[in-house]
Amino acid sequence: MSYDALLILILEGVLALLLLYFHRLLRNPKQIVISAVIIAGAFVLRGFMLTHQTLDYQDFLKVWVTYFRDNGGWKAIAHPIGNYNVPYLYFLALISYTKISDLFLIKLLSILFDVLLAWSVMRLVEQFTSSSIRKLAAFFVTLYLPTVLLNGSYWGQCDSIYAAFAIMALDQALRDRPAASMILFACSFAFKLQAVFILPVILVLIIHRRMKWWHLILFPITYGVLVFPAVYAGLPVNDAIMLYLDQMGTVGQGLNYNSPSVYALIGEVANKDFAGKMGIVAAALSVCIILFMNLRTQYKSERRVLCSALLMVIAVPLFLPHMHERYFFLADILSLAAAFVAPAYFVLPFLLQFASLLGYQAYLRGFYLYPMYYGTLALFAALIISLIWFYSKKKA
After folding, report:
1. Where are the alpha helices (DSSP H) in 50-101?
2. 353-366: per-residue pLDDT in tens?
């Protein structure tokens, strides 16, 4: 690792500590030292992972940064590059100007958002408990969560970016800041299409009177602002707006890509097109059921909003076709938040980590540790437990 990359990594660790300090969770020198040691451990682990290169980096991310570097950096934003939306490409364009290894900078960007993700989880948990220990634990465990560690630092993926924005959005909605929430939901979607798994929770927030219908207008406005620099640089408006639709047209023929979705349980099917359409129907139906549950319940609370979001980010990718191993990342995070909000349901993040890590193992190590349908069964168990929590009469 270069000294420049090491310095950035250290500064990100310092940022994590400062976020806790200025939030007044660290009240004495002993707490500061213990927190610093815990954070340092999380960043040492990340430092060891920085040099690893996956095929995703070699075949895509490295190629895209090189293209920016060879074609004028920011000017190349006007060209159709890769299959990531333009807000992430802005970062790759900026990375192309530096002499620091693009592998390190790509991962360090994700690590920065690991910190913001941990911060957002802590803030979300804070609304349900006054316990400093639980809030600090939520922050630290998020940093150490296996899928969070592996996703950015080892794999070089950027799921922590859209997830951080999504959790911040949910937190702001529960703090009665609907405009900020909608803007953050739009930011999440602008970075990754997988944000659609949680976006139906906006309707839950409207049902719970946490948002008004007119707040929806902020979503396309925010998205437009985020893609405007690319359009101004010369990218056709249609390309900026229709990118996700183009992505959906290139998902491939496989119903499942190392994912613990329902298709891992079904196995090979003769009519993939029909099976895929049935999965889309099942995902849509699951969202409708969750919305109906919220309409019918008389006890509307922050807990049921959180539980509804968790149910959606498990159920939607569980039934949709063409899912990849990383698409339960938001479910991993929200299940962890749920465990700190309601410790009686501590098993949820274990079920989600087991399911997700089966897919990570398959991609990163090249073989299946256990059949993927074991993960599917774990997700169904998590759905049942989440439903029990939804209808529980306890506050947490």
Report:
1. 55-56, 62-70, 86-95
2. 999 999 999 999 99
C-alpha span between 34 and 14 (Å, rounded): 14
Structure tokens at 251: 């998902």
Q: Residue 220: what residue type?
A: P
Q: Are 270 and 337 in contact (CB under 8 A)?
A: no
Kindly write down the DSSP assignment for every residue of 199-219, as one continuous string. Answer: TTHHHHHHHTTSS-GGGGGHH
Give the C-alpha distances (Å, rounded to integers) separating 385 from 215, 307, 390: 32, 10, 9
Q: What span, in angstroms and rounded, lies between the C-alpha atoms of 316 and 261?
A: 9
Question: How far apart are the C-alpha atoms of 78 and 323, rounded to whole Å?
Answer: 29
CA gap 231, 226 in Å, rounded: 10
pLDDT in tens, 165-212: 999 999 999 999 999 999 999 999 999 999 999 999 999 999 999 999
Please, is 23 exposed, middle or buried when counting C-beta atoms within 10 Å of its C-beta (0-12, 13-18, 19+)? middle
Nearest to 153 by CA among 8, 358, 304: 8
The rounded distance, in Å, linking the Cα atoms of 264 and 319 is 10
Q: pLDDT value at position 396?
A: 61
- How far from chain centre, in Å, is Cα 42? 19
| pLDDT at residue number 249 | 54
| Model pLDDT, residue 241 | 80
Q: If DSSP codes are grouped into helix, strand and coil, which group holds residue 250?
A: coil
Distance between CA atoms of residues 1 and 104, nearest Å: 8
- Structure tokens that stand for 344 in this block: 């009686």
Per-residue pLDDT band for 89 (boundaries 50, 70, 90) equals very high
Task: Tell me the C-alpha distance between 315 and 300, whole Å.
Answer: 21
Query: Buried (b) or exposed (e) across 142-161, using 16+ Cβ within 10 A?
Result: bbebebbbbbbbbbbbbbbb
CB 116 within 8 A of CB 328: no
Residues 153-176 have pLDDT tens digits of 999 999 999 999 999 999 999 999
Do the Cβ atoms of 157 and 204 come closer than 8 Å?
Answer: no
Helices 3-22 and 29-49 cross at an angle (nearest 10°) of 150
Q: Is residue 359 a contact partner of residue 260, using CB atoms and an 8 Å limit?
A: yes
